Amino acid sequence: MKRHIRDSYYIVGEGLVHYDPKGKPTTDTNPPTMAEVRKFRFSRLGLKGEVFDKTVVSGLAKAMTATPGPLSAGPAIPAGFTYLGQFIDHDMTMDRTATALGSQVTVEDLVQGRSPALDLDCMYGRGPDDAEDARFYTDGIRIKMGTTAPTPVPDNRTNLPLDGFDLPRVGQGSAKLARRAALIPDHRNDENLAVAQTHLAMIRFHNRVVDHIAPSTPTADLFTRARGLVVKHYQWMVKTDFLPRLVDQAIVDDVFTNGRKFFEKDVVPETLPTMPIEFSVAAYRLGHSMIRESYQWNRVFKTGGLTAATLVLLFQFSGTSGILSPDGDLNDRESGSFERLPTNWIVDFRRMYDFSEVGRADLVPPEGVPNAAMAIDTQLVDPLKTLPFGSFGGPNTTPPEELNLAFRNLTRANMVELASGQQMAAMMGVAPLSAADLTKGLPAALKSVGTRTPLWYYILREAELNGGKLTGVGGRIVAETFHRAMEGSAHSIVRDPAFRPTDLTANAGDRFNMTDLLLFAFEGRADLLNPLGD
To answer: What is the DSSP string of 317-341?
Structure first.
């Protein structure tokens, strides 16, 4: 699956949806069976909508990237949650069969591998017993990590290689692009440095759980038991920490207490879920609004250091979108002198998450607070107006307008004939937003948006009017999709309501936040959460 690109969607009950050669949305209702099962499985929650005129799409995309919005409204959302959200998206949309040879995959495997579940398959792949995916593991139980490359500067912390602070990399091949590639099941998790370091933290979490339970667990059962614990703790963190920061708590509580009202509400829990097209193409693109132009990344890359870590630099120091190097040309994937992450680019997690929330005042960064995400609203930061060519998986041939992330999101919604915000509000029995609320700040040429609004824009405006949290249409779509993705996982806290966080932390009660996960993964040590120091 290419980054930021999907040229077709297989929607269960409809067929393969794509653009025809003339740019018109079309559906192949009778695709060949194998082509059908080889597509990720989407469903449609609402009605089909009318296609928006390209002038509306272009105008709205320009308006959404004209000026950046404010930092997160209400209680600040630490910026790490922006990229945790991206990691979670890749987990839910991971194609577990992507690396497998066609002759080795059954139809049952294909369907299973293309069904969304919150199960960390973007990290585990098909597991250590699979002939292809065994390469991701060190001993059939623990997952490989990589070593950073020392930087040629007189700094006694950055001029050393540090083991366990880069993703594992292929390291072989005639081309730098091949050698730089991350040795992980989903290369999308190396498309920017923030999501790459998040993936690495999850690897550490798995390996630490293995070490924690190894003394009391037979070796033959160690991987399976560790994976179950990791996935359930991860789901608990998503349910109790991640979702409530983005979605109205009342909606989250209602869905996880009383069940789903709209999405696959009568299915057998163990059956394979689908993913609502409204979630993938609209509601969960909320994270694009949260992205900052730059970050206080560590003691080297911050205001007052060499430079703040701009969004462009986070792309540059990745192996999928970038070149892992300060020199070279970002559009020339064979340029640059580094083939592993330079040591001075290791993240300081204190600057991305708020450890004071879990009683670790000793892990407050020098700035006093971590980076805050941008508000969930209808504005995107300027760099998203012109994404780097590498993020599309190809050379610099993409038309300039198509480099605008808002334009791409809105165009993709047209392709699948997504319902408007008003249609979804009517279906869910939610009072629709007024035309005045929807068109505030837009040019007069876009006044039609007030009565028929692209769903993505509508959901972001709902949040903007609700202090930066999804509510109404958007909140319900996101909460119900996550509930179903947990329910359909082989390891599921929804199907195991008695589950509570175990002795992975010393906390009493039910708390297991992302900061708890990081503390466990990094042994509670400041020198591992921030190896470059202050």
So the answer is: TSSSSS-SSSSS-TT-TT-SS-SS-
Question: Rg of the chain's alpha carbons, rounded to an integer?
Answer: 22
Q: What is the DSSP letter of 396?
A: T
3 state SS of 26: strand
By C-alpha distance, which of 303, 96, 80 is closest to 193?
80
Report d(CA 330, CA 379) in Å as an integer. Answer: 26
Angle between helices 455-464 and 472-487 (to 10 degrees): 110
Examine residue 402 and state whether it is found in any structural domain, yes or no: yes
Contact 512, 240 (CB under 8 A): yes
Please report whether residue 38 resides in a domain. yes
Closest by Cα among 251, 248, 279, 284 to 467: 248
The pLDDT value given to residue 221: 98
112 pLDDT exceeds 90?
no
Note down the domain range covering 269: 8-144+183-292+371-501
**DSSP secondary structure code for residue 273 in this structure:** P
Look at 72-76, 425-429, 528-532 and tell me which has the smallest mean pLDDT. Answer: 72-76
Phi, psi of 166 (to 5 degrees): -130, 160
CATH value at residue 261: 1.10.640.10
In this prediction, residue 154 carries a pLDDT of 82
Sheet holding 25-28, edge to edge: 25-28, 15-19, 8-11, 41-43, 275-276
| Structural domain contains residue 173 | no
Tens digits of residue pLDDT in 172-224? 999 999 999 999 999 999 999 999 999 999 999 999 999 999 999 999 999 99
Q: What is the count of structural domains for the chain?
A: 1
Using an 8 Å Cβ cutoff, are 510 and 500 in contact?
yes
How much is the pTM?
0.91
- Nearest-CA neighbor of 331 among 307, 311, 312? 312
Which helix (H) or strand (E) element contains residue 16? Answer: strand 15-19
Alpha helices by DSSP H, listed for 259-375, are 277-281, 287-290, 311-316
Q: Are 213 and 229 in contact (CB under 8 A)?
A: yes
Q: Which helix (H) or strand (E) holds 309?
A: strand 309-310
Rounded CA-CA distance 184/119 in Å is 15
- d(C-alpha 458, C-alpha 476), whole Å: 13
User: Is beta strand 8-11 parallel, antiparallel or unpaired with respect to 41-43?
Assistant: parallel
DSSP 241: I
Q: Which two tokens stand for residue 476?
A: 């319900």
Distance of CA 59 to the CA centre of its chain: 27
Three-state DSSP at 166 gives strand
CB within 8 Å of 102: residues ≥ 6 apart: none
User: Is position 169 within any domain?
Assistant: no
Instruction: Dig out the tokens for 5 from the structure.
Output: 């690109």
